[in-house]
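mind reviewing these tokens:
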Amino acid sequence: MLFVVISTTLGALVGFPWTWITGSADVLYAIAMWIVRTGLRLAGIRVQVEGIEQINPAETYIFMCNHVSNLDPPILIPAIPRRTSVLVKKELFQVPILGRAMRMADLVAVDRRNREAAVNSMRAAEEVMARGLNMTVFPEGTRSRDGRLLPFKKGPFYLATDSGIPVVPVTILGSDSLMPKGSTLIYPGMVRLVFHTPISPKRFTDNDELIAAVRREIASALPPSLREANLDSAS
């Protein structure tokens, strides 16, 4: 924890001015990824990545992953080739330093309680991807308490169909045992990260078909008992 506080402060002192001067968040992003990777190693967390060879670093993708722990974003994002934006709950933008860094890094705030704001968020995400950044989304919208897949929000899939950008389903396994929902403690261990074959939204005439296809891929790497939606495990 001390490492994260000190390195984040030092990173901000270097990354913020550089971003203000150059208008590019690349250095800030690189610093953040170094902090995250080093923090995971110091915490004793090892990440086994599978299927990354299917991803063309020159292409833009929307990465959609299941969500079971607060560790999911720091485990997934550094594994993605090239810089990615993220759809993030708007409340996180109010956190000092973190909120400023997320704005400078072109992360997109999402307010699901306000339909108009949610639509504007999708437009902002399209603009970010038009500049060549990937997008990372957790389509369940919250963490599952028991690891079972929750119903998917439709907004991210409209983003895919409207933009035509391929979706990469991603399955994360094991992060919930290292930092369960509701816990502030982090335990050492192994996390498995599976990148599936990219799915073109142009293959589908119906948004629900795209949702079903992405869900099947994510579920395919989960144990059978975790593949069905659990409406009681969301909060």
Notes: The beta strands are 45-50, 62-65, 84-89, 108-110, 134-137, 167-173, 189-195. The radius of gyration is 17 Å. The helical segments are 2-22, 26-42, 72-76, 98-104, 115-130, 155-163, 175-178, 207-220. The chain has two domains: 1-42, 46-226.
